[in-house]
UniProtKB/TrEMBL annotation:
Gene: murD
Name of the molecule in the record: UDP-N-acetylmuramoylalanine--D-glutamate ligase
Single GO biological process annotation from the record: regulation of cell shape
PANTHER family to which the protein is assigned, alphabetical: UDP-N-ACETYLMURAMOYLALANINE--D-GLUTAMATE LIGASE (PTHR43692)
E.C. designation(s): 6.3.2.9
Protein family membership: Belongs to the MurCDEF family.
Gene3D superfamilies: Mur ligase, C-terminal domain, Mur-like, catalytic domain, NAD(P)-binding Rossmann-like Domain
Species this protein is from: Pontibacter ummariensis
Length: 447
């Protein structure tokens, strides 16, 4: 069987290594330049590859294509494959063929990374034989070569779900559906929601679909009557209609055979969005048989990923928080909602068609200064000019931090939560977050 892999990043190289290990005829093609670390992996495994071009004839001579999530279906080479009726699948779909492990799949517009990391942390600390992979930055396919885990916790993006067909999760988690990446879905929320709902495909009566019952878009997209698995809704606002809910500082789980009451008071996660994330992760842990006391102990030791409401320092009673991963309005809303102190808010970058009106009430209540960090800040200034007392703008993150320090008073929070993509000034959101952290350490913490 001939396999062509498009894209030589983490997922593509992982798929190539798995295909080679299974004795398949594999070829890797990337229109861009391949990182040296990935070239070395391919060369060591004697896998042929090309960069800077697509050899159409060789690619379309394959029996199946494995596509990087970053390649849109409108790409000419993908359209040619469709015309020739060559199956196009994702790395996750491919890897799923070669393991008997059970999958815990987690998706959502916001919160999926935190929920994935927390779920993995809870299960691992309980002693389960569990691996972590997917959109979190680790290739499932490469892990499946050794296949030493009984369970895999997978963060899944809509782009990965689009090319998954036979894949089935034992537990599927859907956090929320809000507008994002609509350019990949014909600017249709219905199509985007349908992509997210693929997380629950192929389920049987022995599988569980854990979902946010407070999310209107999920309510519209989910069809319970056509669903074969066990639905486990969680909610902050409607305990009667959900199986999992907050009661004071405790999460109550009322799913049959999986009862629980988990105290979350020792968790370091802040904000309403993290209450949702924690409910979802705790629900998975209960469905996997983890005891309440074990969950509570693990919640106390959890550290979230970088760039997600990550405290990076405190100086003169002012806290600096890196939330560079907040690249859309919904994520920023959760950040502003979760912080109770006065905020100096650093935002801006490449606008993705944002509607800032949903942030205005919170900004009026909590934000004392808005520092616009971007090349084009007009939309931010128009949205918040009559809402926030002080607005400044810059293209220097060092100046943004220095200005924030000078305008802060004890008890304030300086929050980098951009609501925008980073590509006008930075390589990606990680680069932006790292530069913010370095500026805080250099300008603030060493003073």
């Amino acid at each position: 069987m001939k396999i062509a892999i498009l894209g030589a990043g983490e997922s593509g190289v992982g798929a190539a290594l798995l295909a080679k290990a299974k004795g398949l005829d594999v070829f890797v093609s990337d229109m861009g330049q391949i990182k040296e670390t990935y070239k070395a992996k391919l060369a060591t495994a004697a896998i042929p590859f090309e960069e800077g071009r697509h050899s159409t004839e060789r690619i379309l001579g394959a029996d199946e294509l494995i596509k990087s999530p970053g390649i849109p279906e409108k790409a000419p080479i993908i359209q040619e494959a469709f015309k020739k009726e060559i199956p196009v699948i994702s790395e996750i779909e491919f890897a799923g063929r070669y393991t008997q492990a059970k999958f815990i799949g987690i998706t959502g517009t916001n919160g999926k990374t935190t929920t994935t990391l927390l779920t993995y942390h809870l299960l691992k600390n309980a002693g389960l034989n569990v691996g972590l992979a997917g959109n979190i930055g680790e290739s499932l396919a490469e892990k499946v070569i050794e296949d030493k885990y009984e369970y895999y916790v997978l963060e899944l993006s809509s782009f990965q779900l689009d090319n998954m067909y036979q894949f089935k999760a034992h537990i599927a988690v859907l956090m929320n559906i809000t507008p994002d990446h609509l350019d990949r879905y014909g600017y249709s929320m219905e199509k985007y929601a349908a992509s997210k709902m693929r997380i629950a495909q192929n389920m049987t009566g022995a599988d569980f679909f854990v979902y946010n019952a407070d999310d209107e878009n999920i309510a519209r997209a989910f069809q319970p009557k056509a669903f074969a698995g066990v639905a486990v809704p969680f909610s902050l606002s409607n305990a009667e209609a959900s199986k999992v809910y907050f009661d004071g500082g405790k999460i109550r789980v009322n799913e049959k055979f999986y009862q629980g009451s988990v105290d979350t008071s020792t968790s370091s996660l802040i904000g309403k969005h993290n209450q949702y994330n924690t409910m979802a992760a705790v629900t998975v842990a209960k469905l996997m048989g983890v005891a309440d006391a074990e969950i509570e102990k693990a919640l106390e030791t959890f550290q979230n990923a970088a760039h997600r409401l990550q405290p990076v320092g405190v100086a003169k009673e002012v806290t600096y928080i890196n939330d560079s991963k907040a690249t859309n309005v919904e994520a920023v809303w959760y950040a502003l909602e979760g912080i109770k102190q006065p905020i100096i808010w650093i935002a801006g970058g490449v606008d993705k068609g944002n509607d800032y009106s949903t942030l205005q009430e919170l900004a009026r209540e909590k934000v004392k200064v808005l520092v616009c960090l971007g090349k084009d800040n007009e939309k931010l200034k128009q949205a918040f000019g009559k809402v926030v007392p002080i607005i400044a703008e810059t293209t220097s993150i060092e100046y943004a931090v220095r200005l924030s320090r000078s305008l802060s008073t004890p008890g304030d929070v300086v929050l980098l939560s951009p609501a925008c993509a980073s590509f006008d000034l930075f390589n990606n959101y990680e680069h932006r977050g790292q530069r913010f952290k370095e500026a805080v350490e250099k300008i603030v913490l060493k003073k």
